[in-house]
Design goal:
The chain has seven helices and seven strands, in the order E-H-E-E-H-E-H-E-H-E-H-H-H-E. With 241 residues, it is α/β, with parallel strands linked by helices. The chain has a single domain, classed as Rossmann fold. It has a seven-stranded parallel β-sheet, sandwiched between helices. Helix 3 runs parallel beside helix 4. The mean pLDDT is 95. It binds nicotinamide-adenine-dinucleotide. Nicotinamide-adenine-dinucleotide (NAD) binds next to helix 1 and helix 5. Belongs to the short-chain dehydrogenases/reductases (SDR) family. This is NAD(P)-dependent dehydrogenase (Short-subunit alcohol dehydrogenase family). One of its GO terms (molecular function) is oxidoreductase activity, acting on the CH-OH group of donors, NAD or NADP as acceptor. Keywords: Oxidoreductase.
């Protein structure tokens, strides 16, 4: 079988890194487009410096990969940031940065990879959204809006590029990653765990498994949709900040 060529943004840490590990374990050739090199060892993903907010840079990286490997089969727009603060205190420059990474970053990757997939006749565009796109979480209004935008992109692009290219999002609930560790104290983490029906945060590898499925032939009839991986949080209506 031909080796799958997979590009993941923000794979130097957290969910992206676990996803890169999952795909390399499955035999794929994985490129990690991230601002920084991975701090912890990875299972063999190839790191290329890239700022996802820079359209030209993303297009250049995808162009290099296509020249080296002939194509990109799967592109996962995962790089994202969140900033925890009240809505009335949000500063315009912070909002611009967040939206540039979380929304324009997805558009940049999906355009660059989607163009060559469409010409090649097949491919899968994936992104990391969030349960925050669906439920209202206080102190994350701009982040929540950015993830809702990702779901909207997912639906629209699915219609435009079908039947050649599929799109899908994974919407994680709470995941134990460096991003989460930065923003939550141990006490806050315990409080959140008590409200999640499964009683805990997800491990990054559990989000990676969802991406692995959505990229596979097993998911060939899934497009324009999100797969929520949240331990029952949304089903239970227990959204918590
Ligand atoms: P993380 O902070 O561990 O990793 C994010 C990675 O993105 C880092 O390696 C960082 O260097 C990279 N990055 C940031 N800005 C970039 C840019 N401009 N260009 C290229 N790379 C950039 O975060 P994580 O928790 O693994 O989150 C990954 C994704 O999952 C994000 O989109 C986040 O919104 C989403 N998410 C996280 C959780 C959670 O609980 N951790 C829940 C739902 C959704």
């Amino acid at each position: 079988m031909t080796e799958q060529i997979v590009v993941i943004t923000g794979a130097s840490s957290g969910i992206g890194q676990a996803t890169a590990d999952r795909f390399t374990a499955g035999g794929a050739r994985v490129y990690n487009l991230d601002l920084t090199a991975p701090a912890a060892p990875t299972a063999g993903a190839i790191w290329r410096h890239c700022d996802v907010t820079d359209h030209e840079q993303v297009a250049a990286r995808i162009g290099e990969i296509v020249r080296e490997d002939g194509r990109v089969d799967v592109a996962i727009a995962n790089a994202g940031i969140s900033i925890r603060r009240p809505f009335l205190e949000m500063k315009p420059a912070e909002i611009d940065t967040l939206l540039a990474i979380n929304v324009r970053g997805v558009i940049n990757l999906w355009q660059a990879a989607g163009r060559q997939m469409y010409e090649a006749g097949s491919g899968v565009l994936l992104a990391t959204a969030s349960t925050n796109a669906t439920a209202g979480y206080p102190w994350y209004a701009d982040y929540n809006a950015s993830k809702a935008a990702v779901l909207a992109l997912c639906r629209s692009v699915a219609l435009e590029l079908a039947p050649r290219v599929r799109t899908a999002c994974v919407s994680p609930g709470y995941v134990m990653t460096p991003m989460q560790r930065l923003e939550y104290t141990d006490e806050m983490i315990d409080e959140v765990n008590a409200k999640i029906p499964s009683g805990r945060h997800a491990e990054p590898a559990e989000i990676a498994s969802a991406f692995y499925f959505l990229a596979s032939a097993e998911a060939a009839f899934i497009t324009g949709q999100q797969l929520v991986v949240d331990g029952g949080e949304l089903a239970g209506g227990t959204a918590s900040s």
